[in-house]
Amino acid sequence: MYRASASNLYPINNNGNMFLYNDCLWLADQLRRIVQSRESKQGHIRFRDDIAALEAFGKRSYGKEMESQRTIIKDLLDGAQGFVNCTEPPFSQECDLAVSTIVDRLRDTYNRWQSVLSYSALLQSVGSLLSTVIDKIIIDIEDMGDISERESQRLTAYCKQVIALEDMFLPQQSAKSVSSEEKAVPLTAVYVPGWFKFQYLSEILDSSLVDIKFLWTDGGLKLEYDTEEVVELIEALFADSEHRRRAIGEIRRSSGR
Questions:
Q1: Contact 247, 234 (CB under 8 A)
Q2: Which residues of 111-150 are buried (b: 16+ CB within 10 A; e: fewer)?
Q3: Apex CA 108: angle with CA 57 and CA 166, to 5°?
């Protein structure tokens, strides 16, 4: 009866799918406790199928909501048209709009789900959506064959707008730690696969050849990028020159290629 009526009741709420997911897990947990209690006193009660059905029903609802949000995010990012001509009107306005809309949407989604999901589930869910965003931005920028200095500056600004979202991933604070002067470290990299790679992309776009070589040899760049990815970004960002060829050669030699 619950599953039959849920399809009519929950969609009324904007967070209906997440409420349904949450409620199904809560009901399944309550049934599990009843089973454990009765098994020890009155023998086995066959609630296990109901528990499994409730959990599966809730997870389907969660999956449907996440897929819907990912589709919206991808459609919004498609408005940037791969960030090609991101400094030239009217394409620049489209890029600006796409990035700002994505950032606003993720913050709004975080705020809406905050009252529904547990904190860990909230970070996992929003982190998955943010991962969709940065994966698309990384691919689009790596696909740009030539990036001018103005475009590089614009792309760096877009990356920083997205990176600012890491304030949503601060660990839950106790009253004592909130009042302390220690700065909390965001847990973004825990919940967002590829987060370090995205941060490095922002640095590459804003760095000189010397800086990029340093990030590769002495930083953690080679942990997130393979050699040819870095080489292709260098070739897109810097005009052909002896300095560029030497930098590429040093990067390839340091990786054993």
A1: yes
A2: eebeebbeeebbbebbbebbbbbbbbbbebbeebeebeee
A3: 100
| Residue 3 in tokens | 């599953």
89 cis-preceded (ω within 30 degrees of 0): no
Q: Which residue do the tokens 């997440």 mark?
A: 18
**Residue 82 and residue 98 in contact, taking contact as beta carbons nearer than 8 Å:** no
Query: What digits encode the pLDDT tens for the residues 101-154?
Result: 999 999 999 999 999 999 999 999 999 999 999 999 999 999 998 999 999 999
Alpha-carbon distances of 198 from 19, 41, 244, rounded to whole Å: 32, 55, 23
**Per-position DSSP letters for 142-202, written without gaps between them:** HT-S---HHHHHHHHHHHHHHHGGGGGGPPP--HHHHHSSPPPPP-HHHHSTTHHHHHHHH
Please tell me whether residue 244 adopts helix, strand or coil conformation: helix
Q: Do the beta carbons of residue 30 and residue 75 sit within 8 Å? A: no
Helix H or strand E encompassing 221 = helix 221-224
Closest alpha carbon to 90 in 100, 81, 99: 81
Q: How far apart are alpha carbons 4 and 207 in whole angstroms?
A: 57
CB atoms within 10 A of CB 176: 7
Q: Kind and range of the H or E element at 183?
A: none
> Which residue in this structure is represented by tokens 């967002």?
192
Measured from the Cβ of residue 46, the count of other Cβ atoms closer than 10 Å reads 7
Instruction: Report d(CA 154, CA 152) in Å as an integer.
Output: 5
pTM of the full predicted structure?
Answer: 0.87
